[in-house]
Amino acid sequence: MFQFQFANMNQGLQLMLLQSGDDPAGTLVVFPAWPCNWPVRFKLAGPRNTTVALHYDGNGTVLALDVSPRWRNHSLVFANCV
After folding, report:
1. Quick one: CA dihedral 6, 27, 70, 74, positive or negative?
2. pTM of the model
3. pLDDT at 45
């Protein structure tokens, strides 16, 4: 019988929402593999003690975005949907 591991499924969803870039500047890629018509609200931790909280309505509009610390705002790159 095939069993899902919750940790693997959880990590897969997180990677669909937020990934760190390959550059030394620490770019954060938002929505690298997220379907654009799916609404989502998340708060995830990234590299360099960064937290990204985002609310997306599924129609191409970001309703809320909070990046902590603030100086990491310039590190976000939207790969899809927005």
Report:
1. negative
2. 0.87
3. 94
Tell me the residue length of the chain.
82
Walk along the chain (82 residues) in steps of 10 and give the mean pLDDT of each run: 71 94 88 95 94 96 96 93 81
Identity at 59, one-letter amino acid code: N
Residue 8 identity (one-letter amino acid): N
Please give the helix or strand (H or E) that residue 16 lies within, else none: helix 6-17
Instruction: Classify 8 as helix, strand or coil.
Output: helix
For residues 73 and 11, give the distance between their C-alpha atoms in angstroms, rounded to a whole number.
Answer: 23
Contacts of 54 (CB under 8 A, 6+ apart): 30, 40, 41, 42, 43, 62, 64, 65, 66
Coil, strand or helix at 44: strand
Q: Which two tokens stand for residue 82?
A: 């927005």
